[in-house]
Amino acid sequence: MSTSTTPRSKPVQSTSPPEGLSERDDPEFLTIGYSHFSISNLTALYNSTFAEGFSNDERQAAARALLRHNAHLDGTHFQSRVKGGLHPAYVGFNPSTNDKKARTLSNEELTEAALQDIFDVVTMQDRLDGGITVMLHCTGVKSASVQTADEVTVDLFTPRELHETPERIGSDITVLVQAFCQEFALPHFQRFNKHCNLEIITPPEYNVQAGSINVDGPQYLPFPLSPASSHIQCSTQDPSLFGVPANTKADSTPSAAICQVKEIANRSNAPLSLLPKPQPI
Fold it and tell me: What pTM was estimated for this model as a whole?
């Protein structure tokens, strides 16, 4: 979620495939694809002459930036290796290698570095245009290892406003995190596991532990991963407890979202989850 103070015009949306493409050629109907974003291509760029004179981290960052350039416009967003499977760029498709000279990053290192790239980009974007961004992300994992929303760990980008008004921004973000985990993450894990089954790939186990949000404050969110960072890892509260009337009154918090949750819970005078339990897909 991002807003900018810079005015911008809306592009004209076409309802038909681009000229020269039939409906069968439209990206929505494509199933087989190829991804340039792979460890082998990263290694080739890393070792090319353009990267000479830069540090190891800088060379890796430059290679990732080049290979992901215009990824949101390349028309492959709906592609998969097999029908109903995973995108060709999925990190698990990279061949494993024990030759340290032949690689720059492992699969785990690549996904973590790519996530840090996102945090760098949204941080710089807010600085450039004076806008505000809130980003929530969770990685695809084995659904059996995550049964309830409070077991989901979210990587959260927080805007500078969190430092300026931590009580208001922090309390509102807790509601976003809770809703994201319940309504987006849990159903997604089920879909992701179905995609993995079609690709005959074992989904990774969930092994990340993070501090929980606290809807009652005053510390609504865990602390950032480092004092100067905008990156927070957090988990949700048990859905059955999130909407329970708190000891404090609903009007004691500046968060409109929390006020609404508390008022509903107080009226019912019974434990109430923020959102309905996700239905199996």
Answer: 0.71
